[in-house]
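Handout for the seminar on molecular recognition.
Each group receives one record of this type.
Step one: identify the two inputs.
Step two: read the structure output and locate the region that could contact heme C.
Step three: write two sentences on what you found, then compare them with the reference statements printed after the record.
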Amino acid sequence: MMLRIKAIGWVLGALLLGSVTSLSVTADDDGDKHHKKDKGDGKQTSAAMPPAWKTECAECHLAYPAKLLPASGWREIMGNLGQHFGTDASLDAATIAEILPFLEQNAGSERKYAAAAGKSALRITETRWFVHEHYDELSPAVWKRVSSPANCAACHTTAEQGNYDEDFIKIPR
Ligand code: HEC
Ligand code: HEC
């Protein structure tokens, strides 16, 4: 029985492969692919975006893209919301259980989004990726003009919509 279900899974997987691949390419423009494991048991590997993430995690700042921290970073953040960057962002266990799986399943790779040497594992703005993509690109003078590097919308005019496309970057002057 298990074997048969597995075989059906493989066939479905092969049929769906084309559309799944093109979807993940548009969703991941920086080449960091999420591997969708089709075990043929109909289990969803990608959790839907929970409403609580938008209401609770976009209250003080925008909802940072899940992809830009590894799962280990999100677990640390969600496990320590009482002391969240100098503020109290506590949530009850049920709400955490709603948000964390979504972040984990949409997280980036542990290697690419690892903390830069000596930096915090809790900050997107201190990952190796961010350092390379941002600090190597823009002069220190530019960073003095933004309140915080974590204020993504200071340069990414469409960050609130989750769009970080280069076409919508406007460096403050
Ligand atoms: C009460 C306000 C508040 C709430 C609610 C809140 N945060 Fe934050 N968060 C902050 C502050 C303040 C910072 C530091 C911002 C800075 O350095 O400019 C921060 C920073 C962060 C950073 C690091 C940004 C960087 O430097 O890369 C992440 C990631 C983050 N928050 C995730 C979350 C998540 C996930 C939630 C929901 C569970 C959440 N936050 C809810 C206030 C909040
Ligand atoms: C001071 C301006 C500035 C701030 C603040 C900033 N960015 Fe950027 N970001 C840039 C620039 C400029 C680039 C393009 C670098 C290049 O030319 O490759 C970029 C590139 C990116 C890219 C890649 C876009 C692509 O199409 O390749 C992402 C994703 C991104 N930023 C996310 C963020 C996030 C998330 C934050 C906040 C935590 C943030 N940025 C804060 C200026 C900024």
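Reference statements: Residues 29-30, 64-65, 68, 124-125, 133-134, 137-138, 142, 146, 149-152, 154-156, 164-166, 169, 171 surround heme C (ligand 2) (CB under 6 Å). Residues 152 and 159 are 6 Å apart (CA to CA).
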